[in-house]
Amino acid sequence: MPALLAAALAAATPSVPQAPVAPTCAAQTVAVDGLPLWVDLQGQGETTVVFESGNGNDSTVWDALEPKVRALGVRTFRYDRRGYGRSAHFASETYRVEMDLSTLQGALTACGIAGPIVAVAHSYGGGLALITARRDRRIKGLVLVDAVVPGVSTPKIVR
Question: Within a 10 A sphere around the Cβ of 111, how many other Cβ atoms?
């Protein structure tokens, strides 16, 4: 996976460095859709690598990989989806994939991530990353690990 990620980063990374990370998104909780969501934006560089975990996992699954990716000269962004890890549960709402997509978009916006973005995603998170990439022009690359592929397992949510 490191060679694949390096290739995606090379294709997506412009040569202009970006300002340092806003302190409000470095291992903090921010409000997204009215709920506390744990986010962690680290590093410097124009490109941000967004880690999306699989179903049943939180952002800690990326703990070993994140510092190695950040050392490549990019920003990294991890977050815990609603109901996982250090983020709040959504007790009053029925679960929907669109809710997870909205949470990701809200987290990126709350932390001022303008792009370009390379998404690194596993399993269910791969499906979220694929759908988001279809809708969000900031995403310039994808690294999918054993991903759920929309259109195969979830045809009605891809538009």
Answer: 23
Separation between Cα atoms, residue 135 and residue 155, nearest integer Å: 16
CA 149 vs CA 11, 92, 145: distances in Å: 23, 28, 11
Residue with tokens 């903090």: 28
pTM: 0.81
Contact of 156 with 127, CB cutoff 8 Å: no
Single-letter residue type at 59: S
pLDDT for position 82: 80
Q: Which pLDDT score, from 0 to 100, does residue 21 have?
A: 46
Q: Is 27 left (phi over 0), alpha (psi -120 to 50) or beta?
A: left
- Name which of 89, 100, 62, 55 is nearest 78 in CA terms: 62
Q: Which domains does the chain have, with CATH numbers?
A: 2-157 (3.40.50.1820)
